[in-house]
Amino acid sequence: MDEKNSLLQTLGVTPEQIIGYAYAGLFAAACFAIVDSQSIKTFIDSLGALLSTLIFLGLGIGIYTFYFLVLGEFVLYPFQHFFHGLMDKIRNRTGARHTSTIAFIGYLGVPAGYRRAAYEAIKSNFYDVDERRRIQLAHGELHVLYLTAVELSITAIYLKFVLGNGNVQFAVMALIAYLGALVGDTRQHSLEAYKLKTYGQEKVKAFLSEIGYISSRSEPAG
Asked: How many CA atoms lie within 13 A of 18 on its CB side?
């Protein structure tokens, strides 16, 4: 286990990223095969299985990076946080009773534009190694659902508007995957919010203050 941790640290990647990289590339290959199986077969026959796998892994890194840093940061995750916050509001869970990690971090004093970054810092550095790994693996599994929704949506759009295939099954599967990701992500954030609260607000605030996301003098937002 220590050797695996050392290798991951040397590479500078997390279990969450490894799952995302591998799945994004392999599922993209599956989608390409659905769209044009003959071209994929020719591609693999020309380059060989090993080189083709490496190319799809590289493609997966590119897809995951775009998904995580662009689609995720500006569309998917903000909507999930909005949805979770709305659920908290409906259930009258405010202040220290927030079940949304982003809302709870905001309650502790992190400004709105920095809450995602503060959350990522907590996820990467606040917990002990075993807890951190469990959380990262859970998010890796959620990325599988989000990536499935994204790649199936792209496949459905391509089939519809480029190839003229009006079959909606890929759009339906994409929607199911997205709803599963939304519900699962909300549940995961609720668990993490509960876990954060077990450490005590002062310990979490001290960490956030140490890494510069809140002033040491800031008070909970209420």
From this structure: 14
